[in-house]
Amino acid sequence: MKQFTRNILIIGFIILALLGIFYYLGGQKQASVLQVQVLVKGDLNNATIGDITAHLQSVNKISEPNSNLLITPGVTVVVLQNMQMIGEWTSVPYNGSGVYNLTVGLINNPKPGDIVRVTARVTNANSQDIEVVSKEIILT
Fold this sequence. Notes:
The protein has 140 residues and is α+β, with helices and mostly antiparallel strands. It has 1 helix and 8 strands; from the N terminus they run αββββββββ.
């Protein structure tokens, strides 16, 4: 019985060591994300999008968002370049007027100076659009 317990502990230690190595190596790689800020005014029945800004940011690969459930009611963004999606749909819950910060994981990596089209929408609990605005942005 002691031998079995010792073998289990050794296997557990090896698994933890391997997971630690993979986590460390994944944290060393860099990925680009798009930080999008959407200014929303009004209440959910009357929401308007005042402005959209976006900039590229470098993050650890392990921190890069992969996919996101679409949240309703919520503020949702999608990013296009040359009429193709370059990032996943990303959303955050709607909480009234304010600035909403969304981190978009990118499928393709645009460079500073590239032009992208960011489409932001405010949706109600039934996933109906309350406001939709698109804006072309030169990335910094």
